């Protein structure tokens, strides 16, 4: 584990906390690998009944680290992000997310795999993939239209328009909006509530409700083929360089 992902257990709840606040919790390859390990270990543990993702104050996750995108554009694509998406889609344990501050790119699309999302009133959700000359991932091209309807999904995924916490709740991405300072507590309470239910009945019900999982896994594969090609385009490289060279 790196210090950028902190994994702790609260009884039967496994908490996976992103902890790279100085970079707004942008995800590195090592962070993906850490999360994959934590999710797989949770899947295999009878003692863990629920997983909770949490971030840092002001930043749930600013998406993939753009420096890593630039490296991937120059050389090979590391499989860690893809492994994370697969682990997320296949997770056997219910997943709760505590979202405070920015949720960008994968920070938003990963929420489509979560079972219960708590957001702070100041949270924002955006997927600026097309502005980076990329396409959305994490099966969001399948799951977002299913969840929020085509029109809202197009505005989010294609036009890159951000959702406020209230918009995200209305769109069905978020269950509850609370004071920013209360996000972790309220999410943990929900995670404990889920963890207290008989795990087998949760697993069976959840499995039946997630009958789209096989389609989501196939979609992750197809999106990722396009994504890998687009990462190498001149437009994408220029967009990554522009972000990294921007004046604050
Ligand atoms: N990849 C790499 N570094 C990132 C990052 C990312 N996705 N998001 C933020 N950072 C870094 C910044 O480069 C900066 O690093 P520095 O202090 O060494 O220069 C640090 O995190 C703080 O970000 P900053 O932009 O100064 O904070 P802000 O409050 O003005 O803006 C964001 C925060 C998240 C809105 C802004 O950083 C942003 O738009 N990030 C890119 C998000 C993105 O496009 N992600 C990819 C989605 S597909």
Describe what this molecule looks like in 3D.
- It is a single chain.
- This protein has 248 residues and is α/β, with parallel strands linked by helices.
- It is built from eleven helices and ten strands.
- A six-stranded mixed sheet has the order 1-2-3-5-7-10, sandwiched between helices. A four-stranded mixed sheet has the order 4-6-8-9.
- The radius of gyration is 17 Å and the shape is globular.
- The protein starts with a strand and ends with a helix.
- The model has no long low-confidence stretch (mean pLDDT 96).
- The structure holds coenzyme A (COA).
- Coenzyme A binds at residues 23-24, 26, 62-67, 102, 104-105, 128-129, 132, 243, 248.
SSE blueprint and pairings:
Elements: E1 5-10, E2 13-18, H1 29-44, E3 50-54, E4 59-61, H2 66-74, H3 80-90, E5 95-99, E6 102-104, H4 106-109, E7 116-120, E8 124-126, H5 140-148, H6 150-158, E9 163-164, H7 165-170, E10 176-178, H8 183-195, H9 199-209, H10 213-231, H11 234-244
Parallel strand pairs: 2-3, 3-5, 4-6, 5-7, 6-8, 7-10
Antiparallel strand pairs: 1-2, 8-9
Helix pairs in contact: 1-3, 2-11, 3-10, 5-6, 5-10
